[in-house]
Amino acid sequence: MSSTDSVWLVTGCSTGFGRELARLLLRRGRRVLVTARDPATLAEFSAAANALVATLDVTVPAQIADVVRQAGVRFGGIDVLVNNAGYGYLSAIEEGEDKEVRAIFETNVFGLANMTRAVLPGMRERRRGHIVNISSMSGLIGLPGIGYYNATKFAVEGMSEALAKEVAPLGIRVTIVEPGPFRTDWAGRSLKTPPTAIADYAPSAGARRAAVQAYSGRQPGDPVRAAEAIIEAVESPEPPLHLLLGRPAYEMTAAKLKEFSAEMEKWRELSLGADFPDAD
After folding, report:
1. One of 6, 91, 135, 160 is an active-site residue; which one?
2. Catalytic residue selected from 14, 153, 160, 201
3. Short-list 143, 175, 166, CA closest to 253
4. Quick check: helix, strand or coil at residue 245?
5. The dihedral of CA 126, 39, 44, 177: what is its sign?
6. Candidate list 136, 149, 160, 201, residue with the active-site label
7. How many CB atoms sit inside 10 A of residue 4's CB?
8. HSE on the CB side for 53, CA within 13 Å?
9. In angstroms, rounded to a whole number, what is the distance separating the alpha carbons of residues 135 and 157?
């Protein structure tokens, strides 16, 4: 894919990664469908000749279909889809409200899946394309107080790895982006919490919730540098399947892999002994 004339569709551009990514792409001359649920938040992009601003709630199938149609009419198709729309939910598992849990899955998982299915026919036809799914280090590491958010991002990880194997023979790439804590709205305005906290979880889920909310605006990650890294990865000759962003994500994932490997070895004989004795 030629980087200079590629067409990007980015979801969730009202704030954070999506907004910075759209800004950087447009400055570099890429053609971009800049989308958000509220188009009023995208006024700064409307004058750019290489931008198409569109209303998009990824939980509304008709809006997804319309944005993909607009991309075809204006730009001839979509080369890169960035599934960025999503939000967090801080709650112990027992504290979780059914309505809120289902809502976060609708956006973070099913919305992403619907967007992906909508762009794949065009990518398959052209035998090229790239799907970038914004996951999280929370898609690799379970932490107290964010179990439901973990669940959505673990789902994105599994779906994306399977997708990568399905579409590689068709010339389509997949990259899973796994940021750590960044100075976006994730821990601020966009974050949801249950109305009632259970005291027994104060030392675990409660402490995590307080810590996340306390460092909002002071996270080490720079969204602009993250956007630069995403573009560099997508436009590299051999894009990665997994892209960790930020030191906390890198170091905590490395620590988990080490712990996981050690646990596997510790229980190796018990694991292997579950097969039939005559199994190869």
Report:
1. 135
2. 153
3. 143
4. strand
5. negative
6. 149
7. 9
8. 17
9. 7
- The single-letter DSSP state of residue 58 is T
Q: Return the CATH number of the domain spanning residue range 3-272.
A: 3.40.50.720
Does the pTM exceed 0.85?
yes
Beta-carbon count within 10 A of 165 CB: 10
> What amino acid occupies position 86?
G
State yes or no: is 135 an active-site residue. Answer: yes
Q: Which two tokens stand for residue 205?
A: 């889920």
210-269 tens-digit pLDDT: 888 777 767 777 899 999 999 999 999 999 999 999 999 999 999 999 999 999 999 999
- 148 catalytic, yes or no? no
Helix (H, G, I), strand (E, B) or coil at 50: coil
Query: Are residues 115 and 54 in contact, defined by beta-carbon separation less than 8 angstroms?
Result: no
* Domain boundaries of the chain, sorted by first residue: 3-272
Any catalytic annotation for residue 149?
A: yes
